[in-house]
Write a structure and sequence with these properties.
Among the domains are: about 120 residues, no CATH class; about 80 residues, Ubiquitin-like (UB roll), CATH 3.10.20.310. The protein has three helices and 23 strands. It has about 450 residues and is mainly beta.
Length: about 450
């Protein structure tokens, strides 16, 4: 048996084996009360009031606006499960539990949350295209729950293969009972030119800019975002610029429609994620003819998750992006240059184009169900060391992708492809840490591309 078969065999053994540890109260699962409350399991229960416990920093309205259950609702165990997931999707809590408590002849829905520590001064690092010679590293300050309203402030500074900084702020609730939100960001990066034709020049390209966005929420799952941005690209080589000077100044407007029906964002097991992005960019320091400095972009991304058998979850993702008009070299799609366009296991050159296709499939399964640990002896801030989760899942994956300059090339260009196996560690604050080994279709075992990444792949 060769090495490749051994890896597949071990992966299948882990995935097919029954969970080695079962959880008495898995993360996000509803917990029904004891004693008299047990009778409520047999029939839907009418909710008279909602009580929130454990939200020392988070405003109650931030939690309540995510819920489909309101006073007067008749709820089932499935309703409790769904609403626990919705609250968990805020990304503010280590654990969410919903119980029905009978008090004063009334049914109280108790929402018990364990808040996470929300200020993170952390180091970080990233590598481009799986290449350890292209590592960037730096420092990030993240405040996740500013003012208790789920506002986020982020400051990032990094150096190495790519250098830069980013300042960002988002507020999901600026008006209208949580239906209007906003975000803004300022950034600057310096890095080598990605374009294959000019890569040998060894020159750098600097990107400086910012954007402002306004979001309108429709119901609980649909969001429409409008944005405007200014971006300046500069280089010593004018042939890289559309304006034929040492800088290009672009003004962009965009519209994005998101329908997100995933059950649990941190590790989905069912539901849909669909996004449409439309954008238009205009060069404001370019040629006199407006058409010579205008480009448009459009993309569609769809993800699907559904349980199949023996607790397996089948996951699929498709992304298609196209550009038209005067598309500069630095605004092309670069397949394999970042996490969103990564082909896991692929070791070839980064492809570029004005159009892109990405497809992924992954078969996931829990190996150890999620459990929770409380460090009662924590010297300070003990409430942030409660309900620290841990668990283990595994997955087999297949990725493929392609870019093209002209649509007619799409049928003739070779696909990039990769496959592999991974372990997914469920950890506090990181959600998921992925340890993955991937191979190109014609690679030997020793050519495995090893990666360690945070958060679920999609």
């Amino acid at each position: 048996m060769n090495w490749r078969r051994q890896v597949i065999s071990i992966g299948l053994m882990l995935l097919l084996a029954p969970p080695l540890i079962s959880s008495t109260a898995p993360g996000g699962k509803p917990v029904w009360g004891e004693g008299r409350d047990q009778a409520l399991k047999l029939q839907p229960a009418a909710i008279d009031t909602i009580v929130i416990e454990g939200a020392y920093v988070t405003k109650p309205g931030i939690i309540l606006r995510e819920m489909t259950i309101q006073p007067g609702s008749r709820v089932t165990e499935e309703d409790l499960h769904e609403n626990a997931d919705r609250i968990q999707n805020l990304g503010l809590f280590s654990r969410v539990q919903l119980t029905i408590r009978r008090q004063d002849e009334r049914n109280a829905l108790v929402v018990s949350v364990t808040e996470q520590w929300y200020i993170f001064p952390l180091p970080f690092w990233q590598k481009e295209g799986g290449d350890f010679s292209k590592i960037s590293y730096g420092f990030e300050y993240l405040q996740k729950n500013f003012r208790g309203r789920n506002e986020r402030i982020s400051i990032r500074l990094w150096t190495g293969f790519e250098k830069g900084y980013q300042l960002a702020y988002s507020n999901p609730w600026i008006a209208g009972k949580g239906i209007w939100g906003s975000s803004l960001a300022l950034f600057r990066t310096t890095r080598d030119v990605r374009n294959e034709k000019y890569r040998a020049l060894g020159t750098e390209i600097k990107t400086t800019g910012g954007h402002v966005a306004i979001q309108r929420r429709f119901g609980l799952d649909t969001r429409l975002t409008a944005s405007i941005a200014f971006t300046r690209y500069s280089s010593l080589y004018s042939q890289l610029m559309v304006s034929r000077t040492t800088k290009d100044d672009w003004v962009s407007v965009g519209l994005a429609l998101l329908l997100d029906e995933r059950d649990l964002y941190e590790y989905p097991s069912e539901g849909w994620y669909r996004m449409i992005n439309l954008g238009s960019q205009m060069l404001v320091n370019g040629p006199g003819q407006l058409s010579d400095g205008t480009a448009v972009t459009a993309s569609y991304e769809a993800r699907r998750y559904f349980p199949i058998f023996l607790d397996f979850i089948l996951c699929g993702k498709t992304l298609v992006g196209i550009s038209a008009g005067r598309v500069p070299l630095y605004r092309r799609y670069f397949l394999g240059s970042n996490e969103e366009t990564q082909i896991r296991g692929w070791r070839g050159q980064i492809q570029e184009g004005e159009g892109v296709f990405l497809g992924s499939m992954e078969l996931r399964r829990r190996i150890f169900d999620i459990r929770y640990l409380t460090w009662s002896g924590a010297p300070v801030a003990k409430r942030y060391f409660r309900n620290l989760k841990y668990g283990l899942s595994g997955g087999l994956f297949l990725d493929l992708g392609q870019t093209w300059i002209r649509p007619s090339e799409a049928s003739s260009r070779r696909f990039q492809a990769g496959w592999g196996v991974g372990l997914h560690l469920h950890l506090p604050y990181l959600d998921v840490l992925r340890l993955e080994a991937g191979w190109s279709p014609d690679a030997s075992f020793k050519d495995a591309a090893i990666s360690i990444r945070s958060r679920v792949a999609f």
